[in-house]
Design a protein that fits this description.
The chain has 281 residues and is an alpha+beta fold. The chain is built from nine helices and eight strands. The chain folds into two domains: 7-169, Trna Endonuclease, Chain: A, domain 1 (3-Layer(aba) Sandwich), CATH 3.40.1350.10; 175-266, Orthogonal Bundle (Arc Repressor Mutant, subunit A). This is Heteromeric transposase endonuclease subunit TnsA.
């Protein structure tokens, strides 16, 4: 249950730096510990920098996974407050903004967009886009629609592209695939493997997967046996190679470990050390 919202709490949030900062220093305006939400809340370490991202529902989490796999995205800020809403938008005759206030204190809420995303375009220039995500059934409420209309007007005034997405617009299979591989990005931090171990084992695994008709699961298990690794290590390195895009696969289809490794695209690269991978194309 969310506690009372008032001026004192707002000033505390601002002092804590919520909704402020860039990359590692950014702090979302809303944190998981602030209040419960429908669905499952998550704290995830983003691939882009050493920061924990706070997500309040399954749909927020799935959208975030999709952004993690997009190489054109430089930064994702979650729960971004529109501190300057009144200054930018002003009073609205058709929507009574006074209804968006705490029932106990009467203090107005701060509007937020779920994500503010910094993108590098094809021309090399960077720009921001804003995205709000919400379960579709919640859009049946008039107050929710009005709140998003206010947010839309804010970003229109700012000249920032904004869109509202529901679970119906998200490629769920792709999001679940990314969720499955996501923890394997930084194995040197989450396992006993060193960077040298990861490079060495990855090299062997890449060679084993290349143009191999055997099932992926069978190949990763063979690497475990070949290198006397703990069971499942080869599979963990397979996930790691997908996160770093040294291996590519159709992420819009469920990743099936029993399928032939021939469906994989091994990205050509050179590796230094005991093993060098040079794959001809």
């Amino acid at each position: 249950m969310r506690s009372e919202w008032n001026e004192e709490k707002l000033q505390r949030y601002i002092k804590e730096g919520r909704g402020q900062g860039e990359f590692e220093s950014y702090k979302g305006f809303i944190r998981v510990q602030d209040f419960g939400s429908v669905g499952r809340s998550s704290r995830l370490r983003t691939w882009r920098c050493n920061r924990i991202v706070h997500l309040l529902s399954d749909i927020e989490t799935r959208f975030f996974y999709l952004t993690e796999f997009d190489d054109s995205i430089l930064q994702v800020k979650e729960h971004v407050p529109l501190y300057d809403f009144e200054e930018v938008v002003g009073e609205q005759e058709d929507i009574d903004i006074r209804k968006f206030k705490d029932k106990q204190s009467g203090f107005p809420y701060i509007l937020t967009t779920t994500f503010l995303i910094t993108v590098r375009g094809n021309d090399g220039n960077t720009y921001d886009v804003a995205r709000s995500v919400k379960a579709s059934h919640e859009l049946e409420r008039k107050a929710v629609i009005e709140r998003f209309e206010l947010i839309r007007r804010y970003f229109w005034k700012k000249g920032i592209d904004w869109a509202l997405l529901t679970q119906k617009e998200l490629p769920i299979v792709k999001a679940k695939n990314i969720e499955w591989i996501h923890p394997a990005r930084f194995l040197e931090e989450t396992t006993d493997f060193t960077k040298g171990d990861i490079s060495y084992i990855s090299g062997i695994l890449l060679e084993s997967l290349y143009k191999n008709k055997r099932p992926v699961r069978e190949i990763t298990s063979s690497v475990d046996s070949q290198l006397n690794l703990e069971a499942g290590s080869g599979l963990l390195l397979f996930k790691h190679l997908l996160t770093t895009k040294q291996i590519k696969i159709d992420m819009n289809k469920k990743i099936e470990l029993n399928q032939s490794a021939e469906v994989l695209e091994i990205v050509p690269q050179e590796r230094q050390g005991e093993i060098k991978i040079a794959i001809d194309r």
